[in-house]
Amino acid sequence: MKVYIKFDFNTVCNKILEEKLAESQIKHRNLGFGEVEFLEKVSQEKLRFFRNSLQSYGIEIVENQKAILIQKIKDAVVDLVFNEDIAINVKTSVYLAEKLELSYGHLSNLFSEVTYTSIENFIILQKIERAKQLILSNQLSLTEIAFQLNYSSVAHLSSQFKNTTGITPSAFQRIIKKRKENTSKN
Amino acid sequence: MQHDYILITLADDDEDDRLFFTDAFDELKVNTVVNTFKNGLELMDFLNHSETVLPNIIFLDLNMPILNGIECLKEIKKNDKFKDIAIAIYSTSSSEQDIENTFVLGANIYIKKPSDFNELKKILADVVIINWQYHTNGLNKDNFLLRL
Question: Are residues A21 and A85 in the same domain?
């Protein structure tokens, strides 16, 4: 004997979604059209459980977790580099792992996969960017800038500056100064 | 990268160099569309055309007939319409004075043309990635100087 079955995909999916959300003990509101609003802060564990439980149904969360996480990593790095108040001697890897509640290895792999560059390189880029700002503000000596950005010495800052930009801090300062003179002349 | 394509433009009168350049980009894992021109005048005509989608990065050879790299650089920098485009000088010259002069005139990147293909690939990948960082992370473009 054969029978024909007619599905209503929407009902099926929403039923599964409701069941799994209840199983994961997540307070939520189903907004329809595949959008669910969480009404509480959901821990990484709960979220992972929820995501895994949907997997076998071919349902996945598409809020582009990756892009959101990458942005969080970047924000945390920028915060660390540009905000003098954050404890100077904390290791960046520890800081990021604690702040984002994920292992540094995971963060680091994800970052490299999406951005084609490493977290380490991104940190250096941001530190050099901060150094440029400080150099141009003319308020601190290079020694003071090195100290503020947590370099062990001026030589270390200078060589990282040169490695990253291809030019020395003093050449950078000179070029930008000449550029400004040029534009004010025209 | 999340964006679909990075638009690249090169002006160089040497046919081999143009080929070398496009081949290198073809082999990178970053998606790029590369346009090349034989001299500065062709480049400027392209840029000034109203229907042109402006590139993300322009690579300029310094020694070109009709309109050379420095003249292009000056013209591009004069026009506000082009202010979001990164300018890379792509030259055989390694004279310190040439380098500093192009930076002062507003170039962001100075590349000494390498003779080795793999080295070129690495350099171009670096340029594209760092430029993208500047673009997506709100870094100050006025302070973007890179010498490779």
Answer: no
Q: Provide the shortest C-alpha distance from residue B56 to chain A (in Å).
A: 17
pLDDT per position as a tens digit, A123-180? 998 999 999 999 988 889 999 999 888 899 999 999 999 999 999 999 999 999 999 8
Per CB-CB distance under 8 Å, the chain A contacts of B123 are: none
User: How many structural domains compose chain B?
Assistant: 1
Phi/psi-derived region of residue B61, left when phi > 0, alpha when psi is between -120 and 50, beta in every other case = beta
Q: What is the pLDDT of residues A105-125, one digit of tens each?
A: 999 999 998 887 899 999 998
- Are B106 and A74 an interchain contact pair (Cβ–Cβ within 8 Å)? no
Tokens of A82: 């540009």
Average pLDDT, consecutive stretches of 10 residues, N- to C-terminus, chain B (148 residues): 74 94 89 93 94 93 92 94 93 90 95 92 89 75 85
CA angle B51, B136, B130 (to 5 degrees): 95
CA distance A162 to chain B (A): 9
What is the value of pTM for the model shown?
0.73
Domain that holds residue A112: 67-185
Can you give chain B as a three-state secondary structure string?
CCCCCEEEEEECCCHHHHHHHHHHHHCCCCCEEEEEECCHHHHHHHHHCCCCCCCCEEEECCCCCCCCHHHHHHHHHHCHHHCCCEEEEEECCCCHHHHHHHHHCCCCEEEECCCCHHHHHHHHHHHHHHHHHHHHCCCCHHHCCEEC
What is the value of ipTM here, to two decimals? Answer: 0.82
Within a domain: A168: yes
Same-domain pairing of A169 and A101: yes
Q: Which of residues 74-113 of B touch A (CB under 8 A)?
A: 100, 103-106, 110
Do residue A104 and residue A73 come from a single domain?
yes
